[in-house]
Amino acid sequence: MKAPRIIVVGSVNTDMVIKGSRLPGPGETVTGGEFIMAAGGKGANQAVAAARLGAEVTFIAKVGRDVFGDQAIENYRREGICTDCILRDSENATGVALILVDDKGENSISVASGANFALTPADVAGCADQIRAADLVMFQLETPLDTVLAAAKIAAEAGVPVILNPAPAAQLPVELLQYVTYLTPNETEAERLTGMSVTDEGTAEKAARQLLAAGPKCVIVTLGAKGALLVEADRALLVPSVPIKAVDTTAAGDAFNGALAWSLGRELPLEQAVRQACMVGALSATRLGAQPSLPTQEELNRFAERPQTGG
Q1: 245 against 53, higher pLDDT
Q2: CA angle 187-191-195, nearest 5°?
Q3: pLDDT tens digit string along 155-192?
Q4: Is 80 exceeded by the pLDDT of residue 310?
Q5: What pTM, to 2 d.p., does this model score?
Q6: Among residues 89, 123, 248, 254, which one is catalytic?
């Protein structure tokens, strides 16, 4: 099967992670943690996730003229990602995320966006030919909304399917949703987008149907360990995840979205694509770190074949 051509427009961060026994409260210091530094950023995570699974990925992003930017670009090249559309910014540093993870896998994150928020509509317009030639284009919300809107419009007008992962949660322009094929919020993001309380499968479907009315052809609400709720005009289907012992959920959503793009780009049926994405998200949550947790296709195959023990 031919590798799908996927464009990812999004963010680049260097993640500095401390894994400790618990998350500190306001004004509190918790000692004894384990430190790692790893490549991250939602856009970069999703690009790497899709590339490791076998997609042909081009990443549109902006980094600073600093050591973190140098390291990021070199890392993407090692992953086989095309870096021709990664721009350098002389005025802003490469993005940085500070991440705290407790022993249950829950996390708390603070981000300094830096060059990510200097990515402009003109920057993505310079890569319009690559967007039009893609099998699928994917976005998140760690770059400016007008940039996401400009790139989504280029894709939609060329008939290229658009995945929008509305993370971190934010209010979206109505026009943007009209260009989206697949919208993939989690429960918090679905609540923020609709103003509705999302606490279970039923309320998730109500929120998803409100979002469908704004333009997307499909809304997929990720529900953590429960899996994902796939909602289209004529159906709603809960796709279960697989039982695991979570170590770090930092990039699980990014793993899900990267795998969804890869699967849809291979023209798998939507339900099967969501099942694959749930499995990749679950596998990533069994490992520490953002990009270090993202599996290859071979690792995914082994994971899929393992006994379902929950560990």
Answers
A1: 53
A2: 170
A3: 999 999 999 999 998 889 999 999 999 999 999 999 99
A4: no
A5: 0.91
A6: 254
Cis preceding-peptide flag for 240 (omega within 30 of 0):
no
Distance CA 77, CA 7 (A): 15
Distance CA 192, CA 235 (A): 23
Q: How many whole angstroms separate alpha carbon 93 and alpha carbon 196?
A: 37
Which sequence spans correspond to the domains of the chain? 41-86+118-305
Tokens of 19: 């894994």
Q: Which residues pair with 196 in a beta bridge?
A: none
Classify domain 41-86+118-305 by CATH number.
3.40.1190.20
Reply yes or no on whether 135 is catalytic. Answer: no
The HSE-up count of residue 217 (CA atoms within 13 Å, CB side) is: 9
